[in-house]
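Q: Protein A?
A:
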Amino acid sequence: MLSESQLRRAMRHYLRVISGKPVSNDQPVKKYLPKGGFGTATPDRIFKSMIKYALHVNRNRIKKWPTNWRDLSINQLAPKLL
């Protein structure tokens, strides 16, 4: 099972991969997700899928994401997903 600190670290990693920028736990997630994408493969969907996969393979329950998840920081979002 992923702990909250492990989930925050995974979220930072995937946001850094998607955005190519250093990531802070205190800034809104949307700051690091560029607009655009290709078809339905948007940065938002890719990030959510990566986090859901990380939770799944580590035997965490997959919870419904808050509707305003892009406006939350990593520190605010991580506990809502565990």
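Q: Protein B?
A:
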Amino acid sequence: MTGVRVWMSGVDRQQSVFWRLRSRVLFVRRWWNWRVRWGYLEFVPRVHIVGIVVGWFVALGAVLPQSELHVYDMEPLAALPIGVLVYALYAGGRLVHEAGHAVAGVSRGLSLERVEFGALRAAADWPDGSLAAAPASARRLVAVSGSAAQFVLGTALLALAANLGPTWSPFVWEIVVLGGLVNVCGLFNLLPVWRSDGEYLFGWAWRVRPAWVGALPGTIAMYLLAFGTAAAQFPHGWTAAMMAQLLKSPSGLAVVAFASALVAWIIDRWVFPHRETAVGNESRA
């Protein structure tokens, strides 16, 4: 493990929207593209700041009186820690998932380059071709370890909520339960669809064109199961209010399908745009 290192790559500088502006915004440009390396972990701080803000907006939907999802009485600023919790449970699950891949790969002799940790994208990176060239048993272990680690995290969160939840505020209790369920449902990543861990685990994948369509069934089932279970446990909570709004009409179901398709397309086009198959020169898990 090495110390903390902060830098801005040449590619980031060229792609930065601030690159052509005058020197008075130089500091802003550099801050916007700062990349931090801590041991194997690599991340851009700004994307996580944006993620926390998005989490805060999610929490505001449950506390603002003018919102159709208003179920909790809380000051908007007081909802900020809830937003941090929302993002921490979401992002933490992905980080644990990639840590599971990394630990399993290193234990089988693979050389880990880094673990990239973004708001949408998280991946354990190996030298080009090393994962594809590894024995089938090692590839399967790396594949299953990510979802297994995420499942353990989700189970731990649910156990913690079951024991201590009644002593927390209702909103915190609901969010922790929802976070636990989403992480438990990370097992859906083991379905044999293209660009999933299931492709490594089973050695084949359901391939359709466009590729992101293959991820739709698992994505919809995963979140409907997690949110539906949370709504059943908290019938007067934020999750139940949101599910009621989405599922009360065919248009709501269309919104769910469209949102799932949009997320799958974004991940396919911008999160993993050049990801190869397990048979090729794959270097990410």
